[in-house]
């Protein structure tokens, strides 16, 4: 019986370590058109561990992809470290290329035509740090002004694993069962010969 209580307590404690994805940050309003080169940063609090960001990269007018002589390069940084870089045809010509990205990343680019802008849908895994994290999105390239090209970000969100309140309850209950089981154990009798 006591062994069963001990096993149940350990099982509850182990189940209590599970985590679920929670929304850590959601962008308010879209940025609108910004000049290239340029950047925008967002800060949010997180527990250390795996996370995910998704966002829409908006190209205005003729944002250039790779290989057309005016290549514009998009970079995503987490806490000052480059995690994704690429060049995407968002109305300016050239071709779409991701130079590097984390395993499991998804990038889907759509351009209606020359000088008509375009959109890129991004889903990027993150390795979050404990405490405040900073996500920076930037463009570099030839400064051509908003009359020629621009970029912006919309629908940005960050999710990450955080313990649920019910998970904490199960964890505490599991440790309580283990403690109660150990406290009720009787010491073995010593025999004298």
TrEMBL record:
Coiled-coil residue spans: none
Span of domain Ice-binding protein C-terminal: 162-185
Gene source species: Sandaracinobacter neustonicus
Keyword Signal: yes
Any Pfam family: PEP-CTERM
Signal peptide residue numbers: 1-21
Listed name of the protein: PEP-CTERM sorting domain-containing protein
InterPro entries in alphabetical order: Ice-binding_C (IPR013424)
Keyword annotations from UniProtKB, A to Z: Signal
